[in-house]
Amino acid sequence: MILDQFRLDGKTALVTGASAGLGAAMAIALAQAGADVVCHGNSRSPRTCEKIEKLGRRTAAVQADLAQSGAAESLFEKAQQFAPVDIVINNAGTIRRAKAIEYSDADWTAVLQVNLNSVWKLCQAAGRFFIARQATGKIVNIASLLAFQGGITVPAYAASKGAVAQLTKPLANEWASQGVNVNAIAPGYMRTANTAALQRDEIRNRQILERIPAQRWGDPADICGAAVFLASAASDYVNGHVLVVDGGWMGT
Ligand code: NAP
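Above: the input record for the complex with NAP. Below: its predicted structure, written as tokens.
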């Protein structure tokens, strides 16, 4: 039955950046679909776990600063101690805004480390594990509309998200025949801490709303259907796709 293909019973997911925003929403949605969930956070303790426990699912909180080299690999090992992982959602991300001529090396390095290098290392660790155990696996990388567009004063972020969308494709090409699906979601403008500065900026807020056919910012809940789809058997023949969830922005 078609809805059964979306069920995640018996699966274990690792969601990075599950303490807030889109990551918290996706972690809870995966649990609602039946998965046990390892919730990663950096600074804040993931209250998401409490909500998942209330759904009757098993869960654990793990901390890792993905701006540190080596953190992604040890995060995957910690998650494996909870249960063998079937689904990885590479959601943690950071944004630092400054004009290109003033952009600091520290900001560039931090954004690329969290948004790209750690995603790559987590994909590699998960891919190695899935292929060695000869079972299916799902990887969902969270990109952005700035995988396609440049944005304003976010050179490191746009470079990292463009790279995440591209990275998704060679991994999908290599691993599809071994039952490992690698896909990405490109969220549009969603109401989270990541976009707080834009939401506060009256002019940018108006410009953004004028371009979105749905005429509203996205809510974290808006990304959950795409996440469950790409984490489930319903997407077994979907490989290397970047699924845009943007209220129609890219069509205008
Ligand atoms: P958010 O509310 O700011 O959440 C970001 C998450 O990433 C938090 O859980 C945070 O952990 C984690 N994180 C940040 N820096 C980290 C680090 N150094 N090490 C480990 N974890 C770190 O933002 P969001 O909007 O939900 O963003 C989630 C993802 O969606 C990001 O990849 C973002 O680029 C992408 N995205 C968002 C939008 C949007 O409109 N909101 C649009 C396109 C793409 P702590 O809270 O524990 O620090």
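Notes for the reader.
Strands lie at 12-15, 36-41, 59-63, 87-90, 137-142, 180-187, 242-245.
The pocket of NAP is lined by residues 17, 19-23, 41-44, 65-67, 91-94, 114, 142, 144, 187, 189-190, 192-195 (CB under 6 Å).
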